[in-house]
Structure formats: structure tokens, C-alpha cells
Design a protein that fits this description.
heterodimer; A: 797 residues; alpha+beta; 4 domains; 19% strand; B: 252 residues; alpha/beta; Rossmann fold; 6-stranded mixed beta sheet; 4-stranded antiparallel beta sheet; 7 helices; globular
Chain lengths: 797, 252
């Protein structure tokens, strides 16, 4: 190795703190990009691969009972690839702790003879599915957490109150069904004989699974083919209740994960951007420290390009180490997270893959970005003349003119503090770069915290439509006057409102198409709904055929507006309704909800005084007492033979919903922490450089009596001062980033921009973190500075 | 007696009758916050090959600026600088670096060895930059130079492990690495005790005897007298330039 390259190696190895900081800076970017890319690419690939391997249906048509004769005619509908009829029985799974979980039992002839929405063995690679005998049940692996073993007997309470015992035949992997942890209900499978025994029908089907022959991801095409199937069904004498199309051709989690991946991708590249700032800073200081050496090399014959090459190799060597460490680390952690995500979203993780495009991006972050960041400082210093390089003797330069005001106010600040504040502004370019890194880190951190707040606000907005503590859904209509007093007699229950929920269709103006929707009818005097209106007004007690439509219906029928009269199909009867208002509800709601007065709707369908659900408000609202009341209500309903479909607690619903946004929150928190790490590294790097540059000054101060504490205080206060400056600027910059995040995440995940929320939590937490980061980042340089002896410092060159 | 390794002969560089170093009406003006400062004023200086010239003067008189003109470290505001038939004042920075590496050996007051490289690597560095010798010969040459400086035992130490005098001898060895015809030294003994300074001057004398041209800047009038010629500079002007009698190392 020639002496040139030995110098490069010595520069790399001799200053281990600087090398460590540089490598860590690059690692953060390489890791962030690799981690997100690996997760994104593999998740998209495996999620859809697993989903598509089950020959999924793109749509489901819910109908009045259809027999095999009508079913086979559907296979001839143009565009249909495969058709399968299913019928099911709803019930509740009774758990040992007395809790009940809604369960849907789908009847299948033989698990191996399904053509659409295939069931797969629990463990990938197993040859066959478990045999499904009479009075046996197949469970999806996503509910293994319940702890049921093969051979265990499960008690299922049917809608009519009867309890049936089913033996667990085994577990399967049902990738086309939304798992319990996301839905709150279970889908399981029984054979057709068992279905009949449970009260279902094996000769007739209540839902038709439609798989299109081509363009499975084309929503319009899927919608057209499904409509043609529905038309054929109706021509065959069946009634179509409802068509469900949800992200055709993709796993149910696909839409959410796309948004997550895009948002995290943006954040990871922002981390790279921050790292680049830090690299510029570090290279600037490296070059400042090395300018004399560069002068010497030039004095003995070194040319600019030779010196440039040496430093480029040095920078690339930081990248090589960072790349070598961060690439496998990002891949490994991505795999770990992916396995967790796959468990949560219930898909099979395929063979772990190193994606070339990820490695290329990581290589760009490891090699090209640092090089680009370093190029200007490198070029500027490598071109320095020998005279410029060797003329910088004596005390460090870069002092700032003392403003008059500072002199006037100086009695309020001790001299070491004033030195710290003046030192802060001595290297303005370095200060700007350090501040930029910290400000961006702070802005991202505060914005992510604001996003958490936005999620909370969104949940609160959604909850305004579901203000009850407990919701009881009945399997059939009951008279309000019968069930309400019963419920209100339970201690702790304050009041119960009888609501109605009913499927329907909105017919287009030219009467050619119809869109599915669901009527939600609270009583006119309901206090359990506080809608967010964007136009018009809410329902008044005297309203008859008035409806309030929402943003979800508007997304499929953008022509609708307040004052319009629309035609609806409810229970195969047409009626006219006037739109009096438009509400906004965050989230993706399928089918869209339309609000009408209970009194009018119940009369319209000839069921006045009958309710399908009770919304109950308790006296204390606290989780423990609500749970206790729900348990008492369950017992009460059972004792009175009231067929309950489901009892849902608001707190459980909220938990279920937040679990979904929590994943995004945790990912973003990781990104925010990474940016904070980069910011901290930037400050540490700057403080180290500042201290190194001022070694002589420190020596002079020590020579005239400065104690260890004085020296440490000067460095620490400077670090804290920079930190606080960045904190203030970070708050301002977090406003546009919060705005962009709430818009992007809202559109990607909730289908509409989220409300802009700006809370104090993020600001105060970042202040706390800034103080910790600044103290930690300055502590090491401060300690180093205080340990220098006068002899060492004045001999420093 | 110092004998230089890998040199074809010990004779001075060919100059075809021209002076090896020539400064013509050189002015150097520094612009400062308090006004223009003339560091050099109308300087004319010719130095022949094989001369050993001391430049003396008070602090701030322009000694180092004069050396910087010759080495190309600084440029004249007016006038011309010729070294070994090269117009130094016209060279660009990059060409200058390579030219300097091949034609001049510079010795600094503070030695300016690269602290992260060993002694032998410091000496090899100019050879690496200028490709002055075949790769496989560079280390051998560096070790021989160290041998001549009586520092062979320290070849693999870092500069910080050496005394000031030893470091300065390493710096001289580095200056000789590419076998340049001219050695320029700025206060080479300024940081050394008198005994060590004596030894360094002894080395310079031996190099002159080998045919090198040496120009040194010094405060020490006694040391300056050991050169063959002494130029006195004051306020940027050469006020005295005369031979110093027969030099100790010069053959009669």
C-alpha cells in the first residue's frame, strides 16, 4: 500500500469517534431506506401472492336463497371466471370466561373441493387440509390465540338461543377472510350436514362468490360483471340484497399497507436528506481540520485531483462499512417485522428475498449521497492554496463582533454563558447545517406526534356517530317497548335508544343503475349521535322522508346535493327521499350509510315500534362497569330468549380500530426516532468539531484559571443553546409537515384528508428530547475539552 | 559526508548560464483591514545553482513572503519569478503542485510532518504524488535517506515519537525525496536547540556540497553566516546581498 492510501486508512482509523459518527450517520439512512423498501416490496409480493393463490372472489352477492340450478347458470355470465355459492349460520362462540364472540359458520361440501376462496393448510407446505367430519368445525389459524386444541369441543349459541357443541377438526389458513383481530368476529367452516344440523340450508345459498375471468384488479370491470351476475340472479327469481366489492384482486390489507409504505418511504428519504446535511457538516469540519495537511501535501507535490481522490476513497470507505452493516440489519429486522405483520394481516410470508432494487437504493444512500454531500466541501478545500492552508496560525479565527445590546444585557448572563452564546454563531455555515438537521428532525417528530393526535381526533369524530357505551344487535326485530324497559332496569344503565339499520339501494336519475347503501335510523330525539355536517342540516323530529347522506355515498354518487329528491329501493319497494344534509365521517365505510328518522322509516316498512338494535348509555361510562353491565345484559337477554346477534362495547370497538392505526403509528415513531438520532449525531459532531477547533482557546482559558466545570459549562451551554434554537424553528417547520402528513395519510388510508391537528404533546416531548439530546451530544465533547491540559492544548496544531 | 542515494551525480543542475532562481522587480501587496501592506517592494534577486543563501531580517520584514514567491506558495502582485527556467508566476495551482514536488524540497519551521503516517511513509509521500521513482524503489530510497539522516532506527515510528531535531531531519529527508535541485527552508532551526540547529546546518552544508541549491530564512545571524551568501531584507526590500566568504563546506 502506498503512503497515500496509508494516510487514507490512518484518517479512517485514527479518529474513531469521527469515523463512528460518520458511519452511524450513513447507517441511519441506509437502514431506513432498506427497512422500508424490504418490508414494502416483500409485503406487497407475499400478501397478494398468498391471496391470489386462493383463487379469490372479487365480489360477493348477498341474495335470497339460490339453488344449484340457478347457480350454474351464472357461470355463463360474460366475464365470470368462477362462481361458488355459500350458505352460512350465524351464532356466538361461548368462551370459558362467559364472553361471546360473533361467529359465522360457512357450510362447505369438502374443504378440498372449493373452487373460489380456497382454504389452505395451516402451515404452508402441508399436503392436505384436515378432514372435516360431522359436527366438526375448521378454524382459521388467526384465532389460535384463543388456545383451542384439535379435539376441543366448542359451544356455539345459535340465533334461536340453542347451544350446539362442535369439535375442533383443525386449523386452516383462510387468506380471503378478514381475521378476528381486525373484524371482531370469526369466520369458521362446517360441512353441509353440520350446517343443516345447525339450522342452515345446504340446498340453497345465501351468498354468491364471484371470480372474474380477467382484469381482477379493474374495479369497474369487476363491478360490471358482478352487476350482470346480480341481474341474472334477479331474472332467475332471487332477490339481491347487497353487493360487496372490496379492493378487487388484492388482499384486504393491501390498500392500507400501500398508504403506510408510501408515507414511510417519504419519511425514510427525509432521514437520508438529514443524514446528507450531517455528512456535509462532518466533511466540512474534516476538511477544516485537514486543510493544513492538504497544504503540506500540495507543498510536497500533491495535486488537487490526487488529494480529492484520497478523500473520496475515505468517504466511500465510511459508506462501505455502513452498507455492509446496515444492509443485512435492515433486511433482518424487516423480516422480523414482516413476520409480525403477516401474523396480524393473516398472510403467508414467502421465501425471504433480497430485492435488487432495494440494494441499489441502499447503495445510492451509502455511496452516492455521501459523495454528493461531500463534493462541494471537498472541492473547496482540496483547491486551497498552500499559503492559505499554512497561514492559519495562532488562535482560532471566526470571532463575531459583539453587538452593543449584548454588552448592555451582559450583566444578566455570566461570562462563560456569554462565551457559549457567541461561540454558537462563530461558524455560521456549520450552525446553519446543524440547525437544519435538528430543525427537520424536530419538525418530523412533532408532525408524527401531531399525526397521533389526528388519529385520536379522527377516532373521536367517528365515535360521534356511535356515542353509546353498549350496542346490542338483535337477530330479528323486537318491540322497543318490550326490550328497552328490560334493559333500562339493569343497574347502571341510564337509557336505551332503539335504532334501525336496513339495507337499501339508491337508484340513479335515469333508473339504469343502483348503488348499495345502508339506512341508519336513530329516533328523532336521539342524543347518541353528534354528526359533523358539511352542508345542509341534520334531521328534525318533524322530518318524514328526509335523509342525510355522507361523504362515502358522495364518492360513488358525486352528483348528489342538498335539496335533491332521490329514489330508493328498500325491501323491494321504491320510495322518494329528500336530501336535507351532508355529513362527514372519516374512514372507508362500505356500504355507505344514510341517516333517516326512525319513526318514518319504521312506518315505511310496516314495522313501527320495532327495533333491530339498542344503543345503551350507562351512568358511569367507565370500562369496568360497562363490561359488567354488558355481561348482565347478556344474561338478561338469554333468560328472556331474546335473540342477540352481537353485544359490542364502545371501548372494545375503539381498541379494535386503534390497533389498525397503531401499526402505522409505531412505524412512524421508529422513523421519528431515527430522525432524532440523526439530529443528535449532527449536534454531537458539531460540538466535537467546535471543541477540537477551539483546543487552543480552551488552553488559554485554562491557563488563566478556568476550571473543568467552567470549560464543560461553556460547551454544554452552547449545545443546549443550539438545541433550543432548533426546537423553536422545528415548531414552525412542523406545521407544513403536519399538514402534508395528515393529508397524505388520510387520502392513502382513510380515503379523505384527515383533520389538521396541532397539539402541545409533540412540542413539549420534543423539547424534553432536545434537552436530553443536546446534553448527551455535548457531554462527551465537554468532558474531552475539560480533560485537556494547558501543555496539550497550546501545543495543538 | 552525506551522499544522496539514487542520484546520477552530485553536480549542480544545468543552467546554461542563466541563474537557477531569478526574481525580477517583484512586488507583493497584501490588502488588509487597515490598508494595503507592501510585503515585498521591487525585489530583484538571482541565485545560481549550488549557492547556499541565507535570507535574514526582522519579524515581518518579508522573509517568508520572499520564500513563498520562489516556492509558488504565494504569487507576486507585480514582477516575475523564474526557477530552473520555469515561470513560476504563470503556473496554475495544480501544475504548480507537481512542479514543486519535482523541483523544490521545502522544510518548514514546524516540520509539518503528517502525524498519522510513519516516518518512512512521510518520506515516501512526495514520491507517491509525483511518481518520481519506480514504486518498488520508493521505500528503499526513503530508508536510505533516513540512513543518511541517522534515523533508520526510527523509520516506523510516528513523528510524535521523535524529538524536534529528529523531526526536522525527517522533514529534510522528505524534502530530498524526489531529489529536487533546490531546497527551501523557512526558519528550519527556529524550533531547535543550538546543538541540534548546528547539526541541521551541517546537513545543509553537505547537501550544498552535493550540488543542491539551498535558500534558508533565519533569524539567527550567526547561523546565517554559515551560508555562502547572505541577503538582508527590511520592510520588503533587499537592503544588503553579499557573499559570506568561502563557506566551510565549499571546496576551495
Amino acid at each position: 500500500m502506498s503512503s497515500r492510501w496509508k494516510k487514507v486508512w490512518a484518517d479512517f482509523w485514527a479518529n474513531k469517534t469521527r469515523t463512528f459518527l460518520m458511519i452511524l450517520t450513513v447507517i441511519v439512512g441506509v437502514f431506513a431506506v432498506g427497512f422500508n423498501n424490504n418490508i414494502g416490496l416483500q409485503m406487497n409480493r407475499d400478501m397478494d401472492a398468498d391471496f391470489l393463490s386462493a383463487n379469490p372472489s372479487e365480489s360477493t352477492v348477498y341474495v335470497s336463497p339460490v339453488d344449484d340450478d340457478l347457480l350454474v347458470t351464472l357461470e355463463d355470465v360474460p366475464g365470470v371466471g368462477a362462481i361458488e355459492g355459500r350458505s352460512d349460520v350465524a351464532g356466538q362462540l361461548l368462551l370459558d370466561d362467559g364472553k361471546k364472540v360473533v361467529i359465522s359458520l360457512d357450510g362447505i361440501k369438502d374443504p378440498d373441493q372449493i373452487h373460489v376462496n380456497l382454504l389452505k393448510p395451516e402451515v404452508s407446505g402441508e399436503a392436505s387440509l384436515p378432514a372435516l367430519g360431522n359436527k366438526e368445525i375448521l378454524l382459521d389459524r388467526s384465532i389460535k390465540s384463543f388456545g383451542f386444541e384439535v379435539g376441543d369441543m366448542l359451544n356455539i349459541e345459535l340465533a334461536n338461543g340453542k347451544i350446539r357443541e362442535l369439535r375442533v377438526a383443525g386449523y386452516i389458513h383462510d387468506v380471503t377472510t378478514i381475521p378476528y383481530n381486525m373484524m371482531g368476529s370469526i369466520t369458521a367452516y362446517v360441512n353441509t350436514d353440520t350446517l343443516e344440523w345447525l339450522g342452515g340450508s345446504s340446498a340453497y345459498y345465501s351468498k354468491i362468490l364471484v371470480s372474474v375471468s380477467e382484469n381482477p384488479t379493474d374495479s369497474q370491470h369487476v363491478s360490471d360483471v358482478t352487476q350482470a351476475v346480480a341481474d341474472r340472479l334477479e331474472k332467475g327469481g332471487a332477490s339481491v340484497y347487497f353487493i360487496q366489492i372490496f379492493n378487487p384482486g388484492h388482499h384486504f390489507g393491501w390498500e392500507v399497507t400501500q398508504g403506510v409504505i408510501v408515507v414511510l418511504g417519504v419519511l425514510s428519504w427525509m432521514t437520508v436528506f438529514l443524514s446528507a446535511f450531517l455528512i456535509v457538516n462532518t466533511i466540512n469540519s474534516l476538511m477544516a481540520q485537514h486543510s493544513k495537511q492538504i497544504g503540506i501535501m500540495k507543498a510536497i507535490g500533491g495535486q488537487t485531483h490526487q488529494i480529492m481522490t484520497m478523500y473520496i476513497v475515505l468517504i466511500l470507505s465510511f459508506g462501505v462499512v455502513a452498507f455492509a452493516l446496515a444492509t443485512p440489519l435492515a433486511a433482518y429486522l424487516a423480516k422480523m417485522v414482516l413476520v409480525g405483520m403477516a401474523g396480524w394481516l393473516n398472510f403467508e410470508v414467502g421465501a425471504f428475498t433480497i430485492f435488487p432494487q432495494t440494494v441499489v437504493q441502499q447503495a445510492i444512500v451509502a455511496f452516492i449521497i455521501p459523495l454528493l454531500a461531500a463534493l462541494l466541501p471537498l472541492w473547496n478545500t482540496a483547491r486551497i492554496t498552500v499559503r492559505e492552508a499554512l497561514s492559519d496560525y495562532g488562535l482560532g479565527n471566526g470571532g463575531v463582533k459583539q453587538p452593543k445590546k449584548q454588552t448592555k444585557d451582559s450583566r444578566f448572563l455570566s461570562r462563560p454563558v456569554r462565551i457559549s452564546i457567541r461561540n454558537t454563531f462563530r461558524r455560521k455555515v456549520r450552525l446553519v447545517l446543524t440547525l437544519s438537521t435538528l430543525v427537520l428532525a424536530g419538525a418530523i417528530f412533532v408532525a408524527v406526534m401531531n399525526l397521533f393526535g389526528t388519529f385520536d381526533k379522527t377516532m373521536q369524530d367517528v365515535e360521534k356517530y356511535f356515542l353509546a357505551d353498549i350496542n346490542i344487535s338483535f337477530n330479528r326485530a323486537y318491540r322497543y317497548e318490550k326490550v328497552a324497559p328490560m334493559v333500562e332496569a339493569v343497574p347502571g344503565v341510564q337509557r336505551a335508544e332503539g335504532w334501525m339499520m336496513l339495507g337499501g339501494e339508491i337508484i340513479s336519475a335515469d333508473e339504469t343503475t343502483a348503488n348499495e347503501l345502508a339506512f341508519v335510523a336513530p329516533p328523532a330525539d336521539s342524543t347518541l349521535i353528534e354528526p359533523i355536517l358539511t352542508d345542509g342540516r341534520w334531521l328534525l323530529p318533524e322530518d318524514e322522508n328526509a335523509i342525510v347522506i355522507g361523504n362515502h355515498l358522495l364518492s360513488v354518487r358525486p352528483d348528489l346535493k342538498v335539496g335533491d329528491t332521490t329514489k330508493m329501493n328498500i325491501l323491494e319497494r321504491e320510495s322518494e327521499w329528500i336530501i336535507v344534509g351532508i355529513y362527514r365521517m372519516p374512514g372507508n365505510v362500505v356500504p355507505p350509510l344514510v341517516y333517516a328518522n326512525y319513526e318514518y322509516l319504521s312506518r315505511l316498512i310496516n314495522a313501527p315500534g320495532e327495533v333491530y338494535s339498542l344503543r345503551i348509555i350507562t351512568e358511569t361510562h367507565n370500562d369496568a362497569s360497562v363490561k359488567e353491565i354488558a355481561s348482565q345484559l347478556q344474561t338478561l337477554m338469554d333468560a328472556n330468549n331474546i335473540q342477540v346477534g352481537n353485544i359490542q362495547l364502545a371501548s372494545e370497538w375503539r381498541l379494535q380500530q386503534t390497533q389498525q392505526t397503531d401499526v402505522l403509528v409505531y412505524f412512524m415513531l421508529v422513523m421519528a426516532i431515527l430522525t432524532a438520532v440523526v439530529g443528535g449525531l449532527g449536534l454531537m459532531s458539531t460540538m466535537s468539531i467546535n471543541t477540537l477547533e477551539r483546543t487552543r482557546e480552551i488552553g488559554v482559558m485554562r491557563a488563566i484559571g478556568a476550571s473543568n466545570f467552567d470549560i464543560q459549562k461553556i460547551v454544554l451551554v452552547e449545545g443546549l443553546f443550539i438545541g433550543l434554537l432548533s426546537w423553536m424553528a422545528g415548531i414552525a417547520f412542523s406545521i407544513p409537515i403536519t399538514s402534508a402528513l395528515t393529508y397524505g395519510v388520510g387520502v392513502a388510508i382513510f380515503k379523505s384528508p384527515l383533520p389538521f391537528t396541532f397539539g402541545m404533546d409533540g412540542i413539549l416531548l420534543w423539547l424534553f428530547l432536545t434537552i436530553i439530546i443536546a446534553t448527551f451530544a455535548s457531554a462527551l465533547p465537554a468532558r474531552r475539552a475539560s480533560r485537556l491540559t494547558v501543555r496539550d492544548t497550546l501545543a495543538y496544531e | 559526508m552525506l551522499t544522496l542515494p539514487f542520484t546520477k551525480n552530485g553536480k549542480p543542475a544545468e543552467n546554461n548560464g542563466y541563474p537557477l532562481i531569478s526574481l525580477r522587480e517583484v512586488d507583493k501587496l497584501y490588502k488588509t483591514a487597515v490598508g494595503d501592506f507592501p510585503a515585498l517592494v521591487n525585489v530583484d534577486l538571482d541565485i545560481k545553482a549550488g549557492e547556499f543563501v541565507s535570507v535574514i531580517g526582522k519579524s515581518g520584514s518579508g522573509k517568508t513572503t520572499l520564500l513563498n514567491m520562489i516556492t509558488g506558495i504565494d504569487r507576486p502582485s507585480e514582477g516575475e519569478v523564474w526557477v530552473n527556467q520555469t515561470a513560476v508566476h504563470e503556473l496554475g495551482e495544480n501544475k504548480m503542485a507537481r512542479w514543486r514536488g519535482n523541483n523544490l524540497g521545502i522544510v518548514f519551521q514546524f516540520f509539518q510532518l503528517l502525524p498519522m503516517l510513519s516516518v518512512v511513509e512521510n518520506i515516501m509521500l512526495p514520491m507517491d504524488f509525483c511518481s518520481a521513482f519506480p514504486k518498488n524503489e520508493r521505500k528503499e530510497r526513503a530508508l536510505e535517506l533516513l540512513e543518511e539522516m541517522e534515523l533508520a532506527d526510527h523509520a516506523y515510528k510516528l513523528p510524535s515519537a521523535l524529538s524536534g531535531g529528529q523531526q526536522q531531519r525527517v522533514a529534510i529527508a522528505r524534502a530530498l525525496a524526489n531529489n529536487p535541485p533546490v531546497i527551501i527552508a523557512d526558519e528550519p532551526t527556529g524550533n531547535l536547540d543550538s546543538k541540534t540547529a548546528e547539526r541541521v546546518f551541517g546537513l545543509f552544508n553537505e547537501l550544498v556540497a552535493q550540488g543542491k541549491t539551498i535558500i534558508i530564512v533565519t533569524h539567527d545571524r550567526e547561523m546565517a553566516k554559515r551560508a555562502s551568501r547572505v541577503a538582508l531584507i527590511s520592510d520588503g526590500e533587499i537592503v544588503s546581498d553579499k557573499p559570506n566568504g568561502v563557506h566551510k563546506g565549499e571546496k576551495a
